[in-house]
Specification:
Blueprint (H helix, E strand, L loop, with lengths): L2 E5 L3 H12 L3 E5 L4 H4 L7 E4 L2 H5 L4 E4 L4 H9 L11 E4 L5 H12 L4 E4 L2 E2 L2 H5 L4 E5 L2 H11 L7 E4 L3 H29 L4 H8 L7 H12 L9 H17 L5 H18 L7 H5 L11
Parallel strand pairs: 1-2, 1-4, 2-3, 4-5, 5-6, 8-9
Antiparallel strand pairs: 7-8
Helix pairs in contact: 4-5, 8-10, 8-11, 8-12, 11-12
Bound molecules: NADP nicotinamide-adenine-dinucleotide phosphate.
Length: 296
């Protein structure tokens, strides 16, 4: 039985630990704070701990579902745990900057650790169903060795390039999440406030080249202003747009449009919607109470 330590029992880590255990792997789930562990059902295949050393000791693979690059550094590299990672494979699945992933890879390699990145597109439902889109930054040899194991999470992991390449591709994807959601929210807000039937708007949009499936996925939440029960919270979108802007600026790319999207995300967070679903961008685009008075 393969033994895996999953570090970070947030939204994605919890689902990942559950899926690995359901598919027969022996999982130790670790989290910095104990609160998240209390919600996890322990079984003969899934145990939980806040003791990092005991999570890592039996593991062949250490899977990272931590919030960001700083969290990874603080857990794996800033303390004394590094020496216990030698000979293990560390799989980084969260969304971090390409530079962060490359420097973590270098520092872990110096400790004798086999590191690669496998950030994902998709969220909790796709993870639980094993249908994530996996972007892999690794050597071809690592990819050949790890491909079958990665299929636990998604049917067709894709080798993008060396470490850093998949992290960059993931940021390119998440920039689209922010930009497409903002663009749709703006059009929906105008349609709604002009009193046009929403279904008429969609009857034109859906068959057109402008349509993206995410529009229908987020439509009802926006109309109902129901942003609870997030899969992907607004605060992580802000993090990812900042990472995109840093990486793009370093490549001489004009980030002005993405900075404007970032400002929308920041306004949503200022409205207290940082921990809600990112469809909350609609609330920043079309604030309640800002409707003009209608004169007949
Ligand atoms: P989350 O629910 O916010 O969980 C974040 C986890 O990171 C928690 O376990 C938290 O532990 C831990 N953490 C944060 N700072 C830490 C530190 N300094 N030291 C130790 N642990 C720390 O996030 P998530 O939604 O699961 O996402 C995890 C990663 O995957 C992020 O990079 C996110 O962008 C990416 N991602 C998310 C989704 C999604 O749909 N949610 C999809 C694709 C990729 P505590 O409980 O102790 O705070």
């Amino acid at each position: 039985m393969t033994s895996v330590a999953v570090l970070g029992m947030g939204l994605m880590g919890r689902a990942a630990a559950g899926r690995l255990a359901a598919l027969g792997q022996s999982v130790v789930a670790w989290n910095r704070s104990p609160a998240a562990l209390a919600e996890l059902p322990t079984t003969d295949r899934l145990s939980v701990t806040t003791d990092l050393a005991s999570a890592i000791a039996p593991a062949e693979r250490v899977v990272l579902w931590l919030a960001d690059g700083a969290a990874i550094r603080s857990v794996l590299l800033d303390g004394a745990i590094g020496s216990q990672l030698a000979g293990k494979t560390v799989v980084q699945m969260g969304t971090i900057a390409p530079e962060e992933s490359r420097s973590i890879a270098t520092d872990l390699a110096a400790l004798g650790v086999d590191y690669y990145e496998a950030p994902v597109l998709g969220s909790i439902p796709e993870l639980s169903a094993g249908k994530l889109l996996l972007m892999v930054g690794a050597t071809p040899a690592q990819f050949d060795r790890e491909r079958a194991w990665l299929q636990t999470f998604g049917p067709e992991p894709l080798l993008v390039g060396p470490v850093g390449a998949a992290a960059a591709l993931k940021l390119a994807m998440n920039q689209l999440i922010g930009s497409l959601t903002t663009a749709f929210a703006a059009s929906l807000a105008l349609v709604e406030r002009e009193g046009i039937e929403i279904e008429t708007f969609l009857q034109i949009l859906r068959p057109s080249a402008l349509y993206a499936p995410t529009f229908d996925k987020k439509l009802q939440r926006m109309l109902d202003r129901d942003f609870d029960r997030p899969n992907f919270p607004t605060k992580h979108l802000l993090k990812d747009l900042d990472l995109f802007n840093q990486a793009a600026t370093a490549q001489g790319i004009d980030t002005a449009p993405v900075q404007a999207v970032r400002a929308v995300v920041q306004r949503a967070i200022a409205l207290g919607l940082g921990n809600t679903d990112y469809s909350a961008l609609f609330a920043a685009i079309a604030p309640e109470g800002a409707e003009p008075e209608r004169t007949l």
